[in-house]
Amino acid sequence: MKDMEIIEAHAMPDHIHMLVRVPPKMSISSFMGYLKGRSAMLTHEQYANLKYKYGNKSL
């Protein structure tokens, strides 16, 4: 989405800390929904072959 900017991010083994600039017209919950949905799609695309190894379980 345009008008969003990642200012700072730190990856931990099990989570990520991010400082993000979001336009004032967008709610935090809308932004998080977009971010979680997009990361789920990218993860599925990258690791789609694992469903053949481990069955058809969701990630």
TrEMBL record:
Annotated coiled-coil segments of the chain: none
Say which domain of life the source belongs to: Bacteria
Residues covered by the Transposase IS200-like domain? 2-57
Q: Which Gene3D superfamilies match?
A: Transposase IS200-like (3.30.70.1290)
InterPro entries, A to Z: Transposase_17 (IPR002686), Transposase_17_sf (IPR036515)
The name under which this protein is listed is: Transposase
Q: Which organism is it from?
A: Enterococcus diestrammenae
